[in-house]
Amino acid sequence: MATLKITLDERRTKKNGTFPVVIRITHQSKSRDITTGYTANSKTFSKATGTFRKDDAANLELFKLLELYSNKLKALRASGLEHLSVQDLKEKLLLTESTGDLTIYDFWQKEICHLRSVNRYGSATIYQNTLGVFEQLVSLKLPFETFGYKGLLELGQKLFAGNRKVNTVGVYMRTFRAICNKAIHQDLVAQDWYPFKNYKIRKSKTTPRTLSLEEMRSFFQLDLSNDEMLYPYWCIGKLIFLLRGINLNDLLLLKPQNVPGDRLIYNRGKTGKSYSIQMLPEIEFLLSQFHSNHLLLGQFSKSQMEDPVK
C-alpha cells in the first residue's frame, strides 16, 4: 500500500547541520522523496509527528502540501497502483493534473513549492502572501473554469473594501494573473477562459523619490569612517548608483567571477539581461571595503544561502 509522510531526509546533511524536510512516498517497500523547500534538524523538527516544534506557519504549509499529494494519490488508487514502480508513482504525483481534478488553490500551492525548489524565495513569498489574502475573501478550491470575469470583479471589490491601496491591489492581481497565465500555458484551461481579457488592473502614480543633484553630492560626501555601523550600507548605496542602478538583490549575489578583468559582467536576475560595466577606480575602492567569500560583497555565508527560509 502506497503511503505519504512528512519527514527529514537524513541522508543529505547540509553544511549548517540541517536536513531537507520532504514528503516521503513509500510503495512496494521502496521510497522516493518530494522536496518541500524547508530544512530542519532534530531539535526543530519532530519525525514522530512530521511537524516543526515551534513553527506553526511552516506546519500549515507542509500540511497543505501533504493534502495536495494525498488527494492525488487517492485519485491514482482508483485506477490501481500495482503496475507502478515507486518512481512512476512519484512522477505521476508531480505531473500536472487534468483541468477537472485541479483547483486554483492546489495549482497555486504547487507553484509556490516549485518557486522554492528553484530558490526563488522572493517570488514564492509574494505568491504565498497573495494567496493568504485571497483565502480570507474568496474560496479558490474550485476548478479554473468556474472562476470568471464576474468573480474577478467581486474579488477586486472585496480587496478595495479593505482600504488597501491601489498599487497593493495591483500587486495581488498581477500575481493572480500570472497564476492564470501559467495554468493556460500548461494546458490546464482553455485560452478563451482567460478572465483578465477585459479586466484592467488599476495603477496609481507614486510620488517620485528621485534625489536632487545636491542631495546626491551630500550623500557621496558624507563623512563616515569604516568602523561605523552605517559604513557598509553607505558603500552599497554608492555602488548601486555607480553600477547603473543595479538591483540590490543582484548586487548582493554577485560573485568574484563576475569580475573577470577590468569589467563587471552579470545577468539581471529578473530579466536575464546581460550587463557589462567598466570597473572605475571608485567602484574598485568600494568593493575593496568588503570581505568577499563565495560572494563579491561577502554579505551571506554559504549556510545562509543554502537555508534562506530560516
TrEMBL record:
UniProt keywords, alphabetically: DNA-binding
Which InterPro entries would you find in this protein's record? Arm-DNA-bind_5 (IPR035386), DNA_brk_join_enz (IPR011010), Integrase_recombinase_N (IPR010998), SAM-like_dom (IPR025269)
Domain of life, per the record?
Bacteria
Q: Which GO terms describe its molecular function?
A: DNA binding
The answer to whether UniProt assigns keyword DNA-binding to this entry is yes
Query: Tell me, what's a Pfam family for it?
Result: Arm-DNA-bind_5
Q: Report domain Phage integrase SAM-like positions.
A: 104-201
Q: Where is the Arm DNA-binding domain?
A: 6-73
The identity of this protein, by name, is Phage integrase SAM-like domain-containing protein
Taxonomy, top ranks, is: Bacteria, Pseudomonadati, Bacteroidota, Cytophagia, Cytophagales
